[in-house]
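User: I'm curious whether this sequence folds into something compact or stays loose and floppy. Could you predict its structure so I can see for myself?
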Amino acid sequence: MRLVDIGANLTHESFRHDLDAVLAHARDAGIEHLVVTGASRQGSIDARALAAAHPTFLSATAGLHPHHAAEYDADTEAVFAELLADPRVRAVGETGLDYYRDLAPRAAQQFAFERQLGLGLATGKPLFLHQRDAHADFMAILAPLRDRLGATCVHCFTGVREELIDYLDLDCHIGITGWICDERRGTHLREIVGLIPADRLLVETDAPYLLPRDLHPKPSHRRNEPKFLPHIVRAIAAARGEDPMALAETTTRNAIRFFGLEGVVAGV
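Assistant: Here's the prediction. I'll summarize afterward.
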């Protein structure tokens, strides 16, 4: 398989001691490119630094996860604007709304989301979005701007059929993670993943989070890694009734187009 992992939190502290090995294992597993998620101000700075250190293998995003939305201010926005001027920073985000944990006030989440969508409008760069238990407000903010925004991905989609249809109606791409491998929470996802048009399906690990629960043998730790992306792709292919190799080619082609990776990742 040749794959692009569109969302890996490689600046997470769990990777500090062995990042070189993690990247080597990813290459061995067929990962041709990784997009390092920026989820905080410092995390976005660090993501760009990683992309600069590995220019043919890593790209970055720059944004503020809704958990950190209370930190959004003019200085933070200026940092993101500077980062997004770098061609190695491929998308705005991760940004959106998360009412499941409510780690930031909802008004602050909405404000930070709106401001980051503004960065998307200003730069024309793709949007890398997060939504959990906030669908109505998420749609109320995103939908009026969608026609003026660039390519948009609702990443780590775990929602229900109605939410998926709403995002597809807005011409969004959908990122699928190892949540689909979870026998407790992912069953509904297996039933609806086939609704995603082939040209709008993207795949990701969201490492170090969401280690696939059906890995055999099970790792001795709970840290997810990009090397497990082929396992996730096989699970998606099984749910869609498709050949895993063909699905890998399709999602890689989609990622190259979405993030503007032509010339960085060889075509398929």
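Summary: The CA atoms of residues 48 and 60 lie 5 Å apart. The chain has one domain: 3-259.
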